[in-house]
Amino acid sequence: MDFLKPALQNNKILAIAIMKEMINSLKLSADIIKKIRQFFDGQGLCEVQTPQLLDYPTTDVYIDSIALQVNKDIGLKSKYLHTSPELEMKKLLAKGSGDIYQICQVFRDNEQGAQNFNEFTMLEYYRLGFDIHRLMDDMTDLLKSLGFTRPATRLSYAQAFSEFTEIDILNTDFNDLKKIAKSHDLCGDFEWIEDLQILLFTALCEPKLEEHPLCFIYDYPKSQSALAKVQGQVAHRFEMYMYGDEVANGYDELQDAQDYQKCFGLEINKRLVLGKAPVDIDEGFLSNLQNSLPQCSGVAIGVERLLSNLLK
After folding, report:
1. Which end of the chain has fewer CB atoms within 10 angstroms, the N or the C?
2. How far apart are CA 32 and CA 25, in angstroms?
3. Residue 216 and residue 143 in contact, taking contact as beta carbons nearer than 8 Å
């Protein structure tokens, strides 16, 4: 059986190499998390922990909550794992918490794709008195504190389309966008213009962003406003890309309960159009905003995506 010894030895060497790589990865991840905390602690932000098990699912049309049944022996009740700490953190902001951050696991159902997972780590933080450009400055400083010093590029959503595709995305109607999609052999069969805008951006603009180590895309069309403030044709929100990977999503946050209620209602109606299960609005969140949210900007960062791009 001596002929097996070289193969067994090679397997042992490979196993040791894999173990060392895993240990190095764990240490690197822990070091990055430590530096993130040092960055925010140094600026006076308060780290918070909010509930992960909620009474209401997300209303977002393209994000699904994972439902759980609890208390089966004393009164069965549905609960939902949070898809983001956003609303719970905004409850704290409305009560006067000041600048806050959180690093936590989040959970999403029906995720698919190479970079989408049912569970991942999210860094979310909010800065009072910041607009999105000041928040982008702050994020650039955060990345520098993590050792990432590559130059940052900023393009408005309209600039990106103009530079990479020559499409006037803010002034091109739904039917014309469908024709443009067809000319690129892309499906144009969508219910809403924002979904087609997203498809065109993903197919035509995102590949160009691979040339940029760090790029902020800001001022999205108002049809993609989500929970960001709208001014004229644009929503004051941004996404951060590293080497073409979307890593973060930030808003100049809505402040009034009525605006949130309207946004939630629109998302719920979209879910019904797509045949998804109806969901209820978290009235407790709205009641927490009776005195409005303070003016602030916030951002959610996918930590695993951040780590993978810091290593490039």
Report:
1. N
2. 11
3. no
Tell me the C-alpha distance between 303 and 137, whole Å.
19
Q: Give the closest residue to 238 by CA, choosing from 193, 164, 301, 292.
A: 301
Task: Please give the helix or strand (H or E) that residue 272 lies within, else none.
Answer: helix 257-273
Torsion on CA atoms 166, 171, 174, 179, rounded to nearest 10:
-30
Classify domain 86-310 by CATH number. Answer: 3.30.930.10
Would you list the domain boundaries of the chain?
Answer: 1-42, 86-310
Return d(Cα 135, Cα 142) in angstroms, integer.
Answer: 10
Q: Give pLDDT tens digits along the chain (312 positions).
A: 554 555 555 566 666 666 677 677 788 889 999 999 999 999 999 999 999 999 999 999 999 999 999 998 898 999 999 999 999 999 999 999 999 999 999 999 998 777 788 999 999 999 999 999 999 999 999 999 999 999 999 999 999 999 999 999 999 999 999 999 999 999 989 999 999 999 999 999 999 999 999 999 999 999 999 999 999 999 999 999 999 999 999 999 999 999 999 999 999 999 999 999 889 999 999 999 988 999 999 999 999 999 999 987
| Rg from Cα positions in the chain | 22
Residue with tokens 């010093």: 149
One-letter amino acid identity for 162? S
